[in-house]
Task: structure prediction
Amino acid sequence: MPVIEITDLAHSGVEIFSSLTEAQLRNRKEPEKGIFIVESPKVIRVALDAGYSPVALLCEQKHIEGDASDIIGRCGDIPIFTGCRELLATLTGYTLTRGVLCAMRRPAPQRLTDICAGARRIVVIDGVVDTTNIGAIFRSAAALGIDAVLLTTSSCDPLNRRSVRVSMGSVFLVPWTWIEDINQLHDIGFKTVAMALTDNSIPLDSPILKAEERLAIIMGTEGDGLAPSTIAAADYVVRIPMAHGVDSLNVAAASAVAFWELV
Result:
């Protein structure tokens, strides 16, 4: 592989790490040319194990023969950019990555029917825009046995750099795709569960939910929750029983509780 030592972040090819925005990396007009950034050796290894394709690597010189050596050995003939710690530390958040960044090719979006085939429990993330919450929901989904993750187009991109980092690579472990209309799920055999506080909400531990063969758990936005129309269209409206007068949990915490109970 070509190892390229750089002395400034304006070096050709380094812009994917140093100056391109998430929107530019994503490339909505030509998704097949989209890129995302993975941080830290551990998360990069998870992505490689899941079959994601590396495009370029950026790491400190000491990591070429250290923490990144096995990664470099798996990446084939891609450029390996390296530089001194002082230079690379000028990248925002770089010092949190254990000295290694990897640019990877975005996969083609999966079809809804393909990732839901055979699934029993899935989650729909509706309008969640905080990257930390997205990453945390994916981590809980992977750990607690959710079969697939669907995101409405108003939600944050799971391959956002921070989402990937917070998820510790779980975004690479659970099949996911975008969904335009949540009501499509009824057509492929799912009952929908809207997590919301309403007068007719049933408790999360209700036996009727456990008896359902296929459930789609809909989690709403951090502030306003789910839209009234989404709640009205759901087969069940469900609340998490709480104490001390607390009415709700953060969406990431609520998702973990719901996944544990319903899976």
